Request: fold
Amino acid sequence: MSTTQYASTSQESEPVKFAYWVPNVSGGLVISNIEQRTHWDLDYNIKLAQIAEQSGFDYALSQIRFTAGYGAENQHEPVSFSQALLHNTTKLKLIAALLPGPWNPAVAAKQIASISQYTGGRIAVNVVSGWFRGEFTAIGEPWLDHDERYRRSEEFIRALRGIWSEDNFTFRGDFYRFTNYSLKPKPLQPLPEIFQGGSSRAARDMASRVSDWYFTNGNTPDEIKKQIDDIRAKAKAHGRTVKIGVNAFGIARDTEAEARAVVAEIIAKANPEAVNAFGHEVKNAGAASPEGQGNWAKSTFEDLVQYNDGFRTNLIGTPQQIAERILALKDVGVDLVLLGFLHFQEDVDYFGKHVFPLVRELEARRAPRSQAAE
Ligand SMILES: Cc1cc2nc3c(=O)[nH]c(=O)nc-3n(C[C@H](O)[C@H](O)[C@H](O)COP(=O)(O)O)c2cc1C
Reply:
């Protein structure tokens, strides 16, 4: 794959950042009966976080699930889990998922401010808007229409930022209200970064208005570029910039054939009922948007075996191939690659040893060329 296909739109001097999905839910990141040497308990995750920060990962993203469904039989709560990992690491930043509805912004702002104080500011949040209706029903939360979910998430983010940065914060929203509220202590500066997930128009519009980071499902550089161009044009109109993170399932092996055999086995051992039921659920959630499309609108059966279309990003092959494809993502404006793996501890270690040095080498080789072009 060519790495010089597009004029770069990202901040070229910044090295691409890496995050991994914290396996704080059981069953791993693929809906498949393939062997996965990944565990969801705290001890496994502490060791993983320590390997990850040694390997050069910048962030770890914890997930929020309230109930089982299509895998994820057990689920640890992400804010407390993130905090436990922070207390056992020194550099890694934890991005804790928050789901407006169950989380009220007053509680979330206070939790995160305290964790920021205890951990030298290593906490960030991922505001998710929900796709799993059954989960909302199970916990007695109203299930809003697609765009209403994003309207609530946007108010949630505005409230978080306001509470964290102002005294006597006053806010009159349709979902949340605050009157002369002064949070003490506030989080450390710089404020915790606010990530969000989603690909729909509502998700992109919200990112352009309020989020620091936009996380999206796996895809090809061409398709990701379309989203980035849209978000960055809208953000510019609001006088803002938004950074972009893209999901990928990483399979690095010494030969491409070995890596391809792994993905083929994951798909061959997929659980078809669970994959189809998951596909039905996520497509329904997006179909309720006015344009009838969501994050998973174009996902095939094979894509859905990985919850967030991570095979599509194609970080599957030799370390050299993967490094070149990461640079191709950077070329279209991607700032961060979020990785899921089959055997997290082993694969995180392998990426750190074999893939990241090649990425840094390619970035260093390019830097003089882009300066010369200026
Ligand atoms: C990287 C990433 C992480 C996400 N993490 C979660 C999560 O932990 N829990 C959850 O319920 N939804 C999660 N989501 C789902 C999104 O917040 C959003 O509800 C979903 O992508 C629907 O997007 P759409 O509006 O584009 O259809 C995540 C999405 C992405 C892209």
